[in-house]
Design goal:
about 450 residues; alpha/beta; 2 domains; nine-stranded mixed beta sheet; eight-stranded parallel beta barrel; about 30% helix; binds ligand LLP
Length: about 450
């Protein structure tokens, strides 16, 4: 685990998060349980916000990428930290608005926004819509014309950099479903078409080069390309972008394969990006753009742990040992989807030496249903509480009811207090939308 003030083992070896004993949280709220450390979420929001304030005169904002973890409480936290958010569906937008989030600080994303989602975004008065197709631009223009509004928009650009964790590749052409390519001229084409539309106002560009990235240079290179692009479009069309959204993607610690970053490290990523934008603005005689970033994983990822109760243990001698827990791919889908790696401990005895390598198996009817594979673990027995780290991002938000399993509760912990922020589903939730036609009765 990446220890910090709010995540550590106490003198008895008990795992403490946000001032609460993990084993007591498990007892009080049941398992599986998503636990979120509020102080960590806030500290990460502040790191980015303060860096923008300090090194870019506050001329920008942090948009929490709420796809990482969306529920009313997290939007409340973001609002109270004076940052914005991005929403990628009507559902995320609805949740943010229900939480009282100021629409002016919401940016709407998506490569295939539905017509009704565009209508909802316009009627809410979102701060920006990030366009990803010409047909969408036309639909939005039509919606705005009808409602007598002019909507600020950005265009999603593909700078031809794909970053993956420790490496990045530059590609002349990309096969991504997102954005318009700089190199093949499609970005210029769409800008020209959008500039003609009367009811949408182009403010600038957005790009997002990937997720779980540690390579500082990939962010810098993307910023450099985007600034060159702003200059190029200015000379070709006369339009100078005043907003630049550089997306998210800052990596987090899951296992010892990843660096253990601290707040300062995240600040230095953003500072490098800012330095590049400033330098390029000067070099190219451009106005400094209003700068947006959209971190998701790095804000909530390490804030979260998931608690499980150990069930059956199956040792296949010389082959594999399975420790089965009461969760699985329905609430922790990242192993099944990406073979993601995690660390885990016995929450009652964090310091016990890891004497075995096990697979943590879920309870779904599928052999690939693991929470994690090849985890170094101390001796555990049925009934013990297992804590899996760095589960705050893309776990609850990607959970499903596969096998009609119940989506777990989420609690927010802070200074020894624990509050439910998402209720555990019950069986009634599972059948709520089922309808039995008369002829089957
Ligand atoms: N902005 C845009 C336009 C994005 O597409 C994403 C993530 C973000 C911001 C936030 O990126 P972050 O800071 O969280 O890396 N389900 C995958 C991750 C998918 C990320 C999709 N886009 C996973 O569990 O690894």
């Amino acid at each position: 685990m990446n220890e910090r003030k709010t995540l550590y083992a106490d003198s008895e070896g008990q795992l403490i998060i946000g001032g609460c004993r993990a084993t007591e949280l498990a007892k009080e709220f049941g398992t599986p349980l998503y636990v979120f450390d509020e102080a960590y979420i806030r500290s990460m929001m502040r790191v980015y916000k303060n860096t923008l304030d300090e090194y870019y005169d506050g001329y920008g904002n942090v948009l929490y990428a709420s796809k990482a973890f969306s529920c009313e409480a997290v939007y409340r936290i973001a609002a109270s930290e004076n940052i914005g958010c991005d929403a990628v569906s009507g559902g995320e937008l609805y949740t943010a608005l229900k939480a009282g989030f100021d629409a002016a600080h919401i940016y709407m994303h998506g490569n295939n926004k539905l017509y009704n989602e565009l209508e909802e975004a316009v009627s809410a008065g979102v701060g920006g819509i990030v366009l990803d197709s010409v047909s969408e631009a036309q639909a939005l223009d039509e919606i705005c014309a009808r409602s007598g509004k002019v909507q600020d928009v950005l265009i999603r650009i593909n700078p031809g950099i794909e970053a993956h964790t420790h490496a990045f590749v530059q590609t002349a052409r990309t096969d991504s479903k997102f954005g318009f390519s700089i190199s093949d001229g499609s970005a210029l084409e769409v800008i020209e078409q959008v500039l003609i539309l009367k009811h949408i106002r182009l403010k600038g560009y957005h790009c997002h080069i990937g997720s779980q990235i540690f390579e500082k240079q990939s962010f810098v290179l993307a910023a450099e390309k985007m600034m060159n692009f702003i200059s190029d479009i200015k000379s070709k069309t006369g339009f100078e972008a005043t907003v630049l959204n550089m997306g998210g993607g800052f990596g987090i610690y899951y296992t010892d394969d990843d660096p253990k970053l601290k707040e300062n490290d995240y600040a230095s990523y953003l500072k490098a990006l800012i330095d590049c934008v400033k330098h390029k603005a000067e070099e190219l005689s451009l106005k400094r753009p209003y700068l947006l970033i959209e971190p998701g994983r790095s804000i909530v990822g390490e804030s979260g742990i998931t608690l499980y109760t150990v069930g059956t243990i199956k040792d296949i001698p010389g082959i594999k040992k399975y420790i089965a827990v009461d969760g699985g791919m329905f609430e922790a889908p990242r192993y099944a989807l990406y073979q993601s790696k995690y660390c885990a401990v016995n929450a009652a005895d964090v310091n016990a030496p890891a004497t075995q390598v096990v697979s943590i198996a879920g309870k779904c009817c599928e052999s690939g249903d693991l929470v994690a594979a090849d985890v170094k673990l101390s001796d555990v027995k049925s009934g013990d509480i297992l804590a899996v780290f760095s589960t705050g991002a893309y776990h609850y938000s990607m959970a499903s009811n596969y096998n009609r399993n119940l989506i777990p509760a989420a609690v927010l912990v802070n200074e020894g207090k624990a509050d439910i922020i998402v209720k555990r589903q019950d069986y009634e939730d599972i059948v709520r939308n089922d309808v039995v036609p008369e002829r089957l009765k």
